[in-house]
Amino acid sequence: MKNIIKISLVSACIGLALSSCQGDLTSLNDDPKHPSILPSENLLATAMYQSSYYMDNPSVNFNNYRFFTQQWAETQYPDETQYNLVTRNQPRNHFNRMYVYSINNLRQAKANLKNEVETDEVRANKLATLEIEEIFIWENIVDTYGDVPYSEAFKPNEILTPKYDDAKTIYVDLIKRIDAAVASIKPGSGYSDLVYGGDMTKWKKFANSIKLRLGINLADIDPALAKTTVESAITSGVISSDAEAYKFKYDGNTFSNPVFDNLVASNRNDFIPSELTIKTMSTLSDPRMDVWFTKVEGVYKGGVFGELNDPYTKFSQLSSYFRSATTASNLLSYAEVAFLKAEAAARNFAAGGTAAELYVTAVTESMRENQVSTANTATYLAANPFNAANWKQSIGTQAWIAMFNKGFASWNFTRRLDYPILVNPPKSNLSSVPYRMPYPDHEYVLNGANVQAAAAKIGGDKATTKLFWDKN
Fold first, then answer.
1. CA dist 403 to 65, 210, 337, 388, Å?
2. What are the angstrom distances between the C-alpha of 372 and each of 12, 241, 246, 287, 438?
3. For the stretch 381-402, what's the b/e string if a residue is b when 16 or more beta carbons lie within 10 angstroms of its beta carbon?
4. Are the C-beta atoms of 402 and 385 separated by less than 8 Å?
5. CATH number, domain at 396?
6. What does the pLDDT read at residue 14?
């Protein structure tokens, strides 16, 4: 963890410890360079870094999204591609990063903002930024675990063992919170934040794009709510260019890209593109392969998923395209939004174009984002047109490819559309591929009755239990 983050977290803890000890005499000991109460802007920066880095982190110790979608294979330690989620405590690690290091900082930022001197307009925009960022993280938590502590969470003076809220109920509340946050935005700027630099027009589009994600996920279990949610999000304005995408930027010094940290800085040779990735893209003559992967003896060769693929040098590797310390974590891209709109149109929602048109937009944007020429893009689209008769396969496969190295987004598409078809590896620890992350082990110690009730309600605390919206 970088020093600035350590300082922020330590300072926050100091602030909590000293908040009840202030007086006229002790104020003489205040150090203005090390405040006991952090500015809300610092807490926002910490939360944005923690959530972005750990949503995007390919480490075997955290989210494992790239293995859930079978896009990456392993060389030295195959446990994670065999879906062992116990040895390294991935459920606990991701849970803590989202709750403790991310949302907790945003909640504290909201409290601290009340005492900061701002105009009403700027204060409203800063609060909207904190709220939208928090909703973004909640969406990740719910779509990773399912039912989770929500309404009773972060109330340590009142509730030490928060109940687990129904995931759909959380979804409905998040949609309402997005609408309220968007409505509260005023003309002007907010924080000079690390993603949008205080541009509230972009924050509004980001909020509506989260709402679009939520709405599409609801499509198979509540089509009416999905339709109104999706259409209102698109009407209000979603991400419509790469410049509006939610990208956490790394400077390569204080902050470094997590893929760089795991592949380059750590000098690890653990990860290679999977055989499924290489075969799927080769069959489609996908020009992104030339950007993303190296060749072995003149051909692309992927690793067998769930096996020990050793030695590393016998397989294609992730190219220098993914190995920069300064590459941003693109956590809600324009290409993803375009695919979500294409899916919305295929489901007969009003999405601003036909499914075929929006499919072309989505594929074209992914090609542009990945440095593919206009001519090669046109050739690819001509060879792989939108298939209205099997739109789930058409959109699902192309979105899965486009979301390569965007693990969480890719996992949502594969769970919802069931394409490409993911086969459970022979040495898997599970009875099928994962559909959710199990609850963290420490919840059974600290919040046992509530986590056990939640496990029973959802049909068992297993990685193979589907989320409420993933029923088809």
1. 11, 16, 11, 21
2. 45, 17, 22, 7, 38
3. beebebeeeebbebbbbbbbbb
4. no
5. 1.25.40.390
6. 26
Predicted local distance difference test score (pLDDT) of residue 36 = 67
In a domain, 133, yes or no: yes
| pLDDT at res. 359 | 98
How confident is the model over 7-49, as pLDDT tens digits? 343 333 323 332 333 334 444 455 555 566 899 999 999 999 9
What dihedral angle (degrees, nearest 10) is formed by the CA atoms of 114, 120, 121, 122?
Answer: -40
Q: For residue 459, what are its two tokens?
A: 């049909």
Whether the CB-CB separation of 147 and 458 falls below 8 Å is answered with yes
The enclosing H or E element of 32 equals none
User: Residue 281 is encoded by which pair of tokens?
Assistant: 């893209």
290 domain residue, yes or no: no
Whether 432 is covered by a domain: the verdict is: yes
Calculate the alpha carbon distances from 36 to 112, 276, 443 in Å: 11, 52, 30
Question: H or E stretch including 181?
Answer: helix 167-184
Does residue 27 lie within any of the structural domains? no
In this prediction, residues 393-407 reach a mean pLDDT of 98
Cβ-contact 125, 186 below 8 angstroms: yes
Rounded Cα gap, residues 63 and 390, in angstroms: 31
Q: What is the DSSP letter of 189?
A: B
The pLDDT tens digits of the residues spanning 336-378 come to: 999 999 999 999 999 999 999 999 999 999 999 999 999 999 9
User: What is the predicted pLDDT for the residue at 33?
Assistant: 58
Structural domain count, the chain:
1
User: How many Å apart are CA 334 and CA 242, to the nearest integer?
Assistant: 5
* CA–CA dist 106, 129 (Å, integer): 10
Q: What confidence score (pLDDT) does residue 7 get? A: 33
pTM (two decimals): 0.93
CB-based contacts of 45, cutoff 8 Å, min separation 6: 8, 193, 194
Domain that holds residue 191: 3-19+37-79+89-255+328-458
Which residue would you say has higher pLDDT here, 400 or 472? 400
Q: Is the Cα torsion angle 294, 297, 302, 306 positive or negative in sign?
A: negative
Distance CA 331, CA 261 (A): 17
Q: Which two tokens stand for residue 282?
A: 């080769």
Segment 19-24 long-range contacts (CB within 8 Å, at least 24 positions apart): none
Q: Of the candidates 39, 47, 174, 21, which has an alpha carbon nearest to the alpha carbon of residue 102?
A: 47
Q: What local confidence, expressed as pLDDT, does residue 280 receive? A: 98
Q: Can you state the angle between helices 355-369 and 391-402, rounded to 10 degrees?
A: 20
